[in-house]
Every structure is written in structure tokens, then in C-alpha cells.
Amino acid sequence: MKSRLLDYARLMRLHRPIGIWLLLWPTLWALWFASGGVPRLKLLAIFTLGTVLMRSAGCVINDYADRGFDPHVERTRDRPIAAGRVSPREALVLFALLCLAALAVAWPLNAAALELALPAAALAASYPFAKRFHSLPQAHLGIAFSWGIPMAYAAVRGSVPWLPASLLMAANLCWVIAYDTYYAMSDREDDLKIGVKSSAILFGRHDRLVVGLLHLAALVLLALVGVLARRGLLYDLGLLVAAAFAVREQVMTRRREPAACFRAFLDNNAFGAAVLAGLAWDYLLAALAAGGAVAAGLGGVATLTSGSCAIPLADGNDVADRGYCVERDIAYTPEGWPQKLRLDVFMPADGNTAPVVLLIHGGSWKAGHRRDMEPLATALARRGYVAVDVSYRFAPRFRFPAQLQDLQQAVRWVRGHAAALHADPQRLGAWGFSAGAHLAAMLALVGPQDPWGAADVHVQALVGGGTPTDLLLFNDSDEPQLLGATPQQDPALYRHASPVYLVTPHAPPTFLYHGSADAEVPLQQAVLLSDALRSAGVPVQLDVLRGGGHSAMPAAAVEAAEEFLDRTLKP
Length: 571
Known about the structure:
alpha/beta; Tetracycline Repressor, domain 2; Rossmann fold; elongated
């Protein structure tokens, strides 16, 4: 039994993990780019294990396809099928089991990523037969080895941004053809004897020149992806190190000795590792630099130290007694955004990693100021939250969904500066009041399939006070200024901009508070959303403030909302 299992392991090539690494590196590049340098451990585990399983499946089906060739090649004649230790039928069963296991591992991924899983399996299964039909089977392998890239983007963002993903796939395709040509160069004489096609045979005496050009093209494309992602010096340094390995391989193969060509193939593991190392360190340096910038005061006043902070206060009180640090007037929108917007950050003074709450002020979508929410921000910071008071563009100058897009960008900013803020962006809540509550609800409920959805923005808890939820029924005079049309003129637009119509079972737990005597936003609006969430099976709590008007936010309501956040966002 033990020898049989060893034969299966050898058939899956587990004793030679180079293929696992070469398949894994571009997938990890994509995960780092897609997640802004902070890939989730769950996704890392899924894609790593999935890579091991699919590479193993690919090796099994490759040896099944080559069972008539491998006995005639010196390097492959001892493989389990070629040597008769594993039957072709056993190989097919093992291939099927590995594919099913890979599907089970990928099952927790979102629908966008799962839709790409079947083409990945088809590419892996068909590659071994490509060498019988065309002279560049390495290109087929390159596409198969690149398919983890769009899957990674889809898993992180819910959709694939095809410009960076396509560039990254093209870079990997060039790299795969380059290193697999070295592999084919080591087998060229045997392949010529048995009639197998390969890039080494196709390129002939120009093989090393073509490989060098392919490595160069891969590096240029990787640099372009870095430009799109605004990567810095350490990423460029990683590419330079990878280029050095490519040059070393050219020297290594100058005599085209089979053993040297195979060593050059193996050396590409270092090429892929260098790119990832540069990328990961570059993101880490950016996070540390952002932390230093926050500490120095990006137009603000806070200074972070280990476990404490100092804020110049008018009354001269020690900030440690206040329990929080403040950083004000931080620009969070990138260059080219239609309007430069700012936010204020309130951080617990203890320096521990904390959940995040995005605070969104009211004002009929056309007025108000983020500092209207400052009393709530200080209370949350004292309670152990990173509270982010955010500004957004006003109507009628900016029509919806501009305001929602601003908030989505604020979430991205928090995620990109999480290390500096000691914030956990995977535990993020949105708390809004009135028009701000409508925007908070849209931020939390809009999905990738909805208009204006942002697949890379996720909210784990929602708190809303005086929340407009159904704009078709709300019939407020400010709505046409926000949407640019009346409900009669464009009812579909009003539905798309109404949280109550966006509820799905995937909505986050929600806490609503609403005055029973609210004359501006009727209580019915909160009831509609509460009922929709409850019908979808989403945990929801509606606190009706008896006799309260639109501006009611009594201490009891605040305390109840904070307790809800504690239950939802704190471990």
C-alpha cells in the first residue's frame, strides 16, 4: 500500500515541487495587486492548496497523455505509468479525484471566481495533447498557468479589471514560454526522435535569443502593471533582481547542454520569487510610509508612538486621558478625482489593532460637514474603534452615484492605510445619519451585480439613523437634485438608488434607530428596510425612539448602536 501511494505521489510530481511554485507565483502576484498588498489569509490558503491540486492533476493527465512517449525518453521512462506501476485507468481516476478536490477547495470563492474555475480545469486537461497539434504547446501551458490571475482578481474584487489582469497574464505568458523553452531544450534530442513538437524545436538556433526577448517582454509588462498600481522603488528592485536571474540563465545555457538547460528552467523559481518579494516589500514600505505620514501629520496634528499619542490641545490636557488620537484633514481621494475630499481619523490611544467605523454626515445630500459626527467619533475611539469622519461631494453639482463612489474610495483609503491606522479593514462598519444613513446603507448593500457596485468594498456592519430607504416612496424635494430626475421621469433610477431594493441574504447585520415623530423622514422608511432585511434572513434591529424627531440621537440610542457594533465587529 505504501509503495502504491508513493507511486501516486510521484505521478502527481509531489517530489518535484518546481511546477507548483511556477504556477503559484503569478497567482500570488495577482492576489497582492488585487488586494492592495493585503491579501486575506483565507484566499491565500484557497489559492495555494488549489494550485497544488491542479498542478498535480495536470501532471497526472500529462503522463496519461504521454504514456506512449515517456518510455522512449531517458528522463521520463521511470515515471509510474511509463514503468507500468500505475495503470492508465488508475491515472484517470486520480485525475478526476484531484479535480473534484480542487473544486471543493475553490467552492468558498465568490461566483465570479468560480465561473473562471471550469476554463482553468479545461486548460490544464488539454495542455498535454497540444504538443501533438501545434509547434508552440508552451503557449497553451502559458495560458493555463496564467488562469489563476483573473481568478485571483475576481476572488478579491468580485469582478476582473481586465487591463491590469490582461497585462499580468501577458507577462506570465511570456515568462512561461521562456522557462518552458529551457525545459524543452533539455529534451530536444528525444523530442525530435519521437516526433513531439516544442518551442525549442520551433525556435531552433535562435532559441536563447527568443527566450531572452520573452524574459524582457515579461519584465516590461510587469513594470507596466506596476505603473498602473502605482508601485515604487522596491517593486522595481524586485524586477531588476528577476532580470539578473534571466541574464544568469542565458550564461548558464550558452552551450545548450541538456543538464544546464534544465537547471536554467529550475532557476526561474527565483525569478518568480524575486517579483513577489519586490511587490510585497513595496506594499509594506508604502504602508509604513503612510504610517509615518500620518504620524507626522498629513495636514493634521496627530503623532503616533508605541501605545500612546500626542495631540496639541487648547486646554492642555494629556491626550492619554482622552483615550484617543486625532488626525484631521487628510486628503483621501487620488489625483484626478473630480473634487479633492478629506477625512478625519480618530484612533484609540492604546495602539492596538481595532475595527473601523466610517461615519457619514447628513444634510440632504447637499450640505453638512463631517465634523457634525465628531462627538460620535470621539465616543467610538474611546470605545476601541478607529472612527473615520468622511466628506463627500454635494448635489446638485455632483449627481448620484458620485457620493457613493466617494465613500467607496474612502474604504479603499482605509484599507491601504490600515497598518498606519492600526485598523482592521476586514471589520468595517458604516454609520450614517439621514442622507448620510442612506449613503451608508447604499455602501453596505450595493453588490457587484448592482449599478455602481464596487466588488473590492465590503462592509460588515451597518448603523443608520433617520434613514431614507425607498426613494420612490420618500418623495422628498431634494431627491431630484441628487438624482437629476423626478421619480416619474426615471423610476428605475430611483429603485437603483434605494437601499430597500438592494437587500440580499449577503447584507451585513444592521442596526436602525428612528424617531417615531420624524417629520422629515417618516418612520415607515426604517420599517421597510427592517422588514426587507428580516425577510432575507439578515440580522436586524430597529429601535423606535418614541416621540423623537428627525434629529433625535439620545444617549440610549447611541449606546445601543455601540453595543451592536461590539457584538458584530469585535471578536
